[in-house]
Protein backbone atom coordinates (compact mmCIF):
# COMPACT_ATOMS: atom_id res chain seq x y z
CA UNK A 1 0.00 0.00 0.00
CA UNK A 2 1.16 3.60 -0.37
CA UNK A 3 3.33 4.53 2.60
CA UNK A 4 4.29 8.13 3.35
CA UNK A 5 7.85 8.83 4.37
CA UNK A 6 10.42 6.48 5.91
CA UNK A 7 7.87 4.43 7.83
CA UNK A 8 10.28 2.21 9.70
CA UNK A 9 11.14 2.33 13.35
CA UNK A 10 14.22 4.47 13.81
CA UNK A 11 15.21 5.11 17.36
CA UNK A 12 16.60 8.63 17.55
CA UNK A 13 16.53 9.25 21.25
CA UNK A 14 15.13 6.80 23.77
CA UNK A 15 11.38 6.81 23.15
CA UNK A 16 11.52 8.70 19.84
CA UNK A 17 10.03 10.66 18.17
CA UNK A 18 10.52 8.70 14.95
CA UNK A 19 9.71 11.49 12.45
CA UNK A 20 10.34 15.23 12.09
CA UNK A 21 10.66 18.00 12.86
CA UNK A 22 8.82 18.92 9.60
CA UNK A 23 7.95 22.36 8.24
CA UNK A 24 8.25 25.72 9.87
CA UNK A 25 5.70 24.46 12.41
CA UNK A 26 8.23 21.78 13.46
CA UNK A 27 5.80 18.84 13.53
CA UNK A 28 7.10 15.58 15.00
CA UNK A 29 5.49 12.13 15.17
CA UNK A 30 5.70 8.64 16.61
CA UNK A 31 5.09 5.49 14.59
CA UNK A 32 6.33 1.93 14.79
CA UNK A 33 7.51 -1.09 12.85
CA UNK A 34 5.79 -4.28 13.97
CA UNK A 35 7.03 -7.76 13.09
CA UNK A 36 5.08 -10.50 14.85
CA UNK A 37 2.52 -13.27 14.64
CA UNK A 38 -0.51 -10.96 14.52
CA UNK A 39 -3.70 -12.86 13.73
CA UNK A 40 -3.31 -15.51 16.39
CA UNK A 41 -2.09 -13.72 19.49
CA UNK A 42 -3.87 -12.17 22.47
CA UNK A 43 -7.59 -11.62 22.05
CA UNK A 44 -7.87 -13.21 18.64
CA UNK A 45 -10.52 -13.90 16.03
CA UNK A 46 -10.12 -16.94 13.77
CA UNK A 47 -10.76 -16.32 10.08
CA UNK A 48 -11.81 -19.23 7.88
CA UNK A 49 -8.39 -19.69 6.29
CA UNK A 50 -6.82 -20.56 9.65
CA UNK A 51 -7.77 -24.21 10.01
CA UNK A 52 -7.74 -27.00 7.44
CA UNK A 53 -7.83 -30.77 7.30
CA UNK A 54 -5.30 -33.01 5.57
CA UNK A 55 -7.15 -35.52 3.43
CA UNK A 56 -5.16 -38.00 1.35
CA UNK A 57 -1.41 -38.31 1.86
CA UNK A 58 0.35 -36.13 4.48
CA UNK A 59 1.92 -33.09 2.80
CA UNK A 60 -0.24 -33.35 -0.35
CA UNK A 61 -1.46 -29.73 -0.64
CA UNK A 62 -4.04 -30.63 -3.25
CA UNK A 63 -5.74 -32.75 -0.59
CA UNK A 64 -5.40 -30.28 2.27
CA UNK A 65 -8.87 -28.77 2.49
CA UNK A 66 -10.07 -25.51 3.96
CA UNK A 67 -13.52 -23.94 4.26
CA UNK A 68 -15.66 -24.32 1.14
CA UNK A 69 -13.40 -27.14 -0.08
CA UNK A 70 -10.54 -24.86 -1.07
CA UNK A 71 -7.20 -26.66 -1.20
CA UNK A 72 -4.06 -25.30 0.48
CA UNK A 73 -2.53 -24.91 -2.98
CA UNK A 74 -5.48 -22.71 -4.03
CA UNK A 75 -5.69 -20.47 -1.01
CA UNK A 76 -2.18 -19.67 0.14
CA UNK A 77 1.19 -18.57 -1.11
CA UNK A 78 4.27 -16.95 0.40
CA UNK A 79 2.39 -13.65 0.83
CA UNK A 80 -0.50 -15.07 2.87
CA UNK A 81 -4.01 -16.19 1.99
CA UNK A 82 -5.25 -15.59 -1.55
CA UNK A 83 -8.75 -16.70 -0.49
CA UNK A 84 -10.49 -16.56 2.91
CA UNK A 85 -8.23 -13.76 4.17
CA UNK A 86 -9.71 -12.00 7.20
CA UNK A 87 -9.93 -8.74 5.21
CA UNK A 88 -12.83 -10.25 3.26
CA UNK A 89 -15.08 -10.13 6.33
CA UNK A 90 -17.51 -7.36 7.16
CA UNK A 91 -17.78 -6.23 10.81
CA UNK A 92 -19.73 -8.71 12.93
CA UNK A 93 -22.75 -7.49 14.92
CA UNK A 94 -25.00 -10.10 16.48
CA UNK A 95 -26.79 -11.20 19.65
CA UNK A 96 -24.52 -13.10 22.04
CA UNK A 97 -25.24 -15.44 24.94
CA UNK A 98 -22.68 -15.86 27.72
CA UNK A 99 -22.66 -19.24 29.48
CA UNK A 100 -21.18 -19.08 32.99
CA UNK A 101 -19.55 -22.47 33.44
CA UNK A 102 -17.81 -21.28 36.63
CA UNK A 103 -21.20 -20.77 38.29
CA UNK A 104 -22.37 -24.19 37.09
CA UNK A 105 -19.24 -26.09 38.17
CA UNK A 106 -18.63 -24.10 41.35
CA UNK A 107 -15.19 -22.81 40.33
CA UNK A 108 -12.66 -22.49 37.54
CA UNK A 109 -12.76 -25.44 35.16
CA UNK A 110 -9.56 -27.40 34.58
CA UNK A 111 -7.52 -28.24 31.50
CA UNK A 112 -8.97 -31.21 29.64
CA UNK A 113 -12.42 -30.70 31.22
CA UNK A 114 -15.07 -30.83 28.52
CA UNK A 115 -18.15 -28.61 28.25
CA UNK A 116 -20.98 -30.75 26.86
CA UNK A 117 -24.33 -29.76 25.38
CA UNK A 118 -25.93 -30.95 28.65
CA UNK A 119 -23.64 -28.54 30.55
CA UNK A 120 -24.72 -25.69 28.26
CA UNK A 121 -28.40 -26.41 28.90
CA UNK A 122 -27.83 -26.73 32.67
CA UNK A 123 -25.81 -23.48 32.81
CA UNK A 124 -28.47 -21.63 30.81
CA UNK A 125 -31.19 -22.89 33.18
CA UNK A 126 -29.13 -21.67 36.16
CA UNK A 127 -29.09 -18.24 34.48
CA UNK A 128 -32.89 -18.36 33.98
CA UNK A 129 -32.36 -18.80 30.25
CA UNK A 130 -33.26 -21.59 27.91
CA UNK A 131 -31.82 -22.84 24.66
CA UNK A 132 -34.95 -21.58 22.89
CA UNK A 133 -33.57 -18.05 23.54
CA UNK A 134 -30.70 -18.90 21.19
CA UNK A 135 -31.47 -18.24 17.54
CA UNK A 136 -29.67 -18.95 14.25
CA UNK A 137 -26.86 -16.46 13.66
CA UNK A 138 -26.29 -15.78 17.37
CA UNK A 139 -22.95 -16.11 19.14
CA UNK A 140 -22.30 -18.39 22.13
CA UNK A 141 -19.56 -17.60 24.65
CA UNK A 142 -18.13 -19.63 27.53
CA UNK A 143 -16.77 -18.27 30.80
CA UNK A 144 -14.59 -21.10 32.15
CA UNK A 145 -12.47 -19.10 34.60
CA UNK A 146 -9.31 -20.23 32.76
CA UNK A 147 -8.71 -16.62 31.66
CA UNK A 148 -7.89 -15.73 35.29
CA UNK A 149 -4.51 -17.43 34.73
CA UNK A 150 -3.61 -14.90 31.99
CA UNK A 151 -0.28 -13.24 32.87
CA UNK A 152 -0.44 -14.81 36.33
CA UNK A 153 0.46 -18.38 35.43
CA UNK A 154 1.12 -18.44 31.69
CA UNK A 155 2.71 -21.91 31.80
CA UNK A 156 -0.49 -23.42 33.20
CA UNK A 157 -2.64 -21.24 30.91
CA UNK A 158 -0.79 -22.61 27.86
CA UNK A 159 -0.60 -26.20 29.11
CA UNK A 160 -4.16 -26.99 28.02
CA UNK A 161 -7.60 -25.63 28.78
CA UNK A 162 -11.23 -26.46 29.48
CA UNK A 163 -13.64 -26.02 26.59
CA UNK A 164 -16.25 -27.43 24.28
CA UNK A 165 -15.87 -30.87 22.75
CA UNK A 166 -17.47 -32.45 19.71
CA UNK A 167 -20.82 -32.98 21.43
CA UNK A 168 -21.20 -29.25 22.17
CA UNK A 169 -19.81 -28.40 18.73
CA UNK A 170 -22.61 -30.45 17.14
CA UNK A 171 -25.13 -28.53 19.30
CA UNK A 172 -23.63 -25.25 17.99
CA UNK A 173 -23.99 -26.51 14.40
CA UNK A 174 -27.57 -27.70 15.00
CA UNK A 175 -28.48 -24.28 16.46
CA UNK A 176 -26.92 -22.68 13.33
CA UNK A 177 -24.83 -20.24 15.38
CA UNK A 178 -22.39 -17.79 13.80
CA UNK A 179 -19.61 -17.74 16.36
CA UNK A 180 -18.15 -19.41 19.44
CA UNK A 181 -15.96 -17.65 22.00
CA UNK A 182 -14.36 -18.17 25.40
CA UNK A 183 -11.86 -16.88 27.94
CA UNK A 184 -9.35 -19.47 26.64
CA UNK A 185 -6.88 -19.59 23.76
CA UNK A 186 -8.75 -22.18 21.68
CA UNK A 187 -12.35 -22.29 23.03
CA UNK A 188 -12.21 -26.09 22.69
CA UNK A 189 -11.11 -28.62 25.29
CA UNK A 190 -7.34 -29.27 25.25
CA UNK A 191 -6.26 -32.01 25.42
CA UNK A 192 -9.31 -33.60 23.86
CA UNK A 193 -10.60 -36.49 26.01
CA UNK A 194 -10.00 -38.65 22.92
CA UNK A 195 -6.19 -38.44 22.87
CA UNK A 196 -6.08 -39.37 19.17
CA UNK A 197 -7.73 -36.05 18.21
CA UNK A 198 -6.08 -32.63 17.79
CA UNK A 199 -8.15 -29.42 17.71
CA UNK A 200 -11.04 -31.37 16.22
CA UNK A 201 -13.63 -28.75 17.29
CA UNK A 202 -11.75 -26.09 15.28
CA UNK A 203 -12.03 -28.31 12.21
CA UNK A 204 -15.66 -29.25 12.83
CA UNK A 205 -16.86 -25.67 13.34
CA UNK A 206 -14.55 -23.57 11.20
CA UNK A 207 -13.47 -25.78 8.31
CA UNK A 208 -16.61 -27.84 7.86
CA UNK A 209 -19.29 -25.29 8.85
CA UNK A 210 -17.79 -21.79 8.51
CA UNK A 211 -18.49 -20.90 12.14
CA UNK A 212 -16.10 -18.27 13.47
CA UNK A 213 -14.24 -18.41 16.76
CA UNK A 214 -13.04 -15.70 19.14
CA UNK A 215 -10.42 -16.52 21.75
CA UNK A 216 -9.02 -15.01 24.95
CA UNK A 217 -12.01 -12.80 25.71
CA UNK A 218 -12.47 -11.07 29.07
CA UNK A 219 -15.92 -11.55 30.62
CA UNK A 220 -15.25 -10.37 34.19
CA UNK A 221 -17.50 -7.30 34.14
CA UNK A 222 -20.31 -9.04 32.28
CA UNK A 223 -20.24 -11.92 34.78
CA UNK A 224 -20.11 -9.56 37.77
CA UNK A 225 -23.16 -7.70 36.42
CA UNK A 226 -24.95 -10.96 35.45
CA UNK A 227 -25.22 -9.67 31.86
CA UNK A 228 -25.62 -12.91 29.95
CA UNK A 229 -27.15 -11.48 26.77
CA UNK A 230 -25.74 -8.58 24.79
CA UNK A 231 -24.76 -7.50 21.31
CA UNK A 232 -21.33 -8.73 20.22
CA UNK A 233 -19.58 -6.30 17.93
CA UNK A 234 -16.22 -6.85 16.27
CA UNK A 235 -14.52 -5.51 13.16
CA UNK A 236 -11.57 -7.72 12.19
CA UNK A 237 -8.46 -5.70 11.31
CA UNK A 238 -8.45 -5.86 7.48
CA UNK A 239 -4.95 -7.26 7.15
CA UNK A 240 -4.75 -8.60 3.60
CA UNK A 241 -4.24 -12.35 3.52
CA UNK A 242 -4.23 -12.75 7.32
CA UNK A 243 -5.61 -15.88 8.99
CA UNK A 244 -7.21 -13.98 11.83
CA UNK A 245 -7.26 -10.71 13.66
CA UNK A 246 -6.43 -9.39 17.06
CA UNK A 247 -8.41 -6.41 18.28
CA UNK A 248 -11.01 -5.48 20.81
CA UNK A 249 -14.54 -6.96 20.62
CA UNK A 250 -17.28 -4.96 22.32
CA UNK A 251 -20.30 -6.19 24.29
CA UNK A 252 -23.25 -3.78 24.10
CA UNK A 253 -25.63 -4.48 26.97
C1 LIG B 1 -5.05 -23.39 16.81
O1 LIG B 1 -4.34 -22.86 16.00
C2 LIG B 1 -5.28 -24.85 16.80
O2 LIG B 1 -5.70 -22.70 17.75
P1 LIG B 1 -5.89 -21.12 17.75
O3 LIG B 1 -7.17 -20.87 17.05
O4 LIG B 1 -5.90 -20.82 19.18
O5 LIG B 1 -4.76 -20.45 17.06
UniProtKB/TrEMBL annotation:
Organism expressing this protein natively: Bradyrhizobium iriomotense
Q: Which residues form a coiled coil?
A: none
InterPro entries, per database record: KFase/CYL, KFase_sf
One Pfam assignment: Cyclase
- UniProt-recorded name of the protein: Cyclase
Which branch of life, at top level? Answer: Bacteria
Amino acid sequence: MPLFGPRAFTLRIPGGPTGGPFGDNKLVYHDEFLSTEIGQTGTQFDGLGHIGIQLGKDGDKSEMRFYNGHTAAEISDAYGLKKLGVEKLKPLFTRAHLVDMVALKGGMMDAGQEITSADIKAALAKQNMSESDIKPGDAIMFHTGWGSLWMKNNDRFNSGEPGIGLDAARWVIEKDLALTAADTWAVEVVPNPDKSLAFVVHAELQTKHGIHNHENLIFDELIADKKYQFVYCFAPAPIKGATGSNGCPIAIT
